[in-house]
C-alpha cells in the first residue's frame, strides 16, 4: 500500500527508534529524580525491557507520574508495529498514502493530512495542546 522507498522506511524506523530511546531516557531520569526508592529500583530496567511494551510496563506500575510519556510511547510502539506489519505509511481512515514529509515530521502519524484535520475537528477536545 505504501509508496515509501526502503531508504525512507529505514530513515523513519531510525527516527522512531531514537524517539523511543529519548522517551525512555526521560522516564528513567524522572524515576531517579522522583527520589522514590520504588521508582529508583525500577529505573534500571526501563532501558532494558526487550520485547515487552514499555507503555504496558509503565501502566502496570500505575505510575501516574509518567502519564504524559505513556501516550507518546504507545504512539511510537504502535507505529513500530505498523511498520513490522507493513501497514506503516497508510492512512488509518482513508487508506491513502501518508506523505513522506509528514511522516518525517511526525513519524507516529497514522492519518494523512486531510483525515487528521478532519479528526481534529471532530474530536477538538483531544487536540488541546499539552502543557
Ligand atoms: Zn486519510
What does this structure look like?
The protein has 131 residues and is mainly alpha-helical. The protein has one domain: Four Helix Bundle (Hemerythrin (Met), subunit A). The chain contains six helices and no strands. The radius of gyration is 16 Å and the shape is globular. The N and C termini lie far apart (36 Å). Zinc ion binds next to helix 6.
Summary tags:
131 residues; mainly alpha; Four Helix Bundle (Hemerythrin (Met), subunit A); 6 helices; 0% strand; globular; binds zinc ion
Number of helices: 6
Unique ligands? zinc ion
Tally the beta strands. Answer: 0
**The CATH top-level class label:** Mainly Alpha
Using the CA coordinates, give the radius of gyration.
Answer: 16 Å
Return the domain count: 1
Oligomer: single chain
* Low-confidence parts: none
Span between N and C termini?
Answer: 36 Å
Shape: globular
Task: Set out the fold topology.
Elements: H1 6-33, H2 37-46, H3 54-60, H4 67-84, H5 100-105, H6 113-122
Helix pairs in contact: 1-2, 1-4, 3-4
The protein binds zinc ion.
Zinc ion binds next to helix 6.
